[in-house]
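Aldo/keto reductase
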Amino acid sequence: MVNYRYLGNSGLKVSEITYGNWVTHGSQVGDADAIATVHRALDLGITSFDTADVYANTAAETVLGKAIAGQRRESLEIFTKVYMPIGPKGPNDVGLSRKHIMEGINGSLKRLGTDYVELYQAHRYDYETPLEETMQAFADLVRQGKALYIGVSEWTAEQLREGHALAKDLGFQLISNQPQYSMLWRVIEGKVVPTSEELGISQIVWSPMAQGVLSGKYLPGRPVPAGSRATDEKFGASVIKRLLSDDVLAAVQKLKPVADEAGLTMPQLAIAWVLQNPNVAAALVGASRPEQLDETVKASGVTLDQGTMAAIDDAVGEVAVTDPEETYSASPKSRPVDRLRA
């Protein structure tokens, strides 16, 4: 079963393995399989579910809504996001304006079949909207009871600090950030994590397995496996491409004996590694079949000793991206027209 952690400086507990439905529900996986996988997650003790209005252009939220229908609502923690272009992708169908946030939450609640979400997240930072406008809209949603807590995704340390201060002035808390984080992508460690620890903000990390590369299934000098994410030009090939160099893949293969020694599979080792960071409240995982979660959840509650952590650094430390400046490129300087984002 899955362990639980507090989210930021709040009383809300979330399952440290959180189910995310990016690129699966409403696109790669049929509704019946998606619903069965969500139900398996619940059986395994996963109570936190992360989605976004942009996933499959709102269809992922609809599928998740169907999957949780009939469940005890109070026993779930539902997260969704706003910012990316949705619908017909008109000029106001994107961003963090008051208009888009208010329309966004109403659409998400309808699709999810609920009156509120535990966590509503700014999917990126919006350089084209005054931050005061964005935070005031979030404050109003909290007061209306439509969102119990507010979080963000891929914000820089400076953006977190400014957003946190405004939230405090407006009478609510900014409690979470959702960045990419894995053994191979450690850019949040330099600035984002220390700032978050100071402010009482947790990380909910996406791609802890580096788009599947840390599973070890991609081999140096070999073609990518048929049917893998690296072959899917619509859902993930462009994101994973930078991780498929032979030096990275060769380094990842060195993790196999480390995982064996720890009594873990390589995916379990990857997820357990991000959960060793005390600022990480949850690791987002996806699945296309229910049985995939049976092994994934075994990473919950695992403590990696210092020797194992050092062996991981020895294996992949030289190929890991650690530059904090990379956090400044996560949010586009102008609102995107249409792009796939986690």
